[in-house]
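User: Some background: our group keeps a shared notebook of sequences we're curious about, and every so often someone picks one and asks for a predicted structure to add to the entry. Today it's my turn. The entry only has the sequence so far, pasted here. Could you supply the structure so I can complete it?
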Amino acid sequence: MYIVDGIAYAGEKTKLINVKSVQPIEDYKVIVTFSNEEKKKFDFSALLNMPCYQPLKDKDIFKSVSVEFGTLVWNNGEIDIAPETLYEKGIAI
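Assistant: Of course. Here's the predicted structure to add to the notebook entry:
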């Protein structure tokens, strides 16, 4: 348990994971470098049928990925994904 601003939280306090850099690669995958210097490969292909990610089916849009405020974004921030998702579901490389 830990306390922040007078609020008690269960579990152990963990350091936030942010994205430092991203490199789009083939087949709707990206290589992500995190703030703890770990690198992981994340496959977006399973997410592309979700309405919020359908624009990424356009490979030019997918390749336009960038990092803003520690997360991946497309279309000037209209599309994003949580760094925690990338970290937890990504494959270490």
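Suggested note for the entry: The chain has two helices and nine strands. The longest strand covers residues 19-25.
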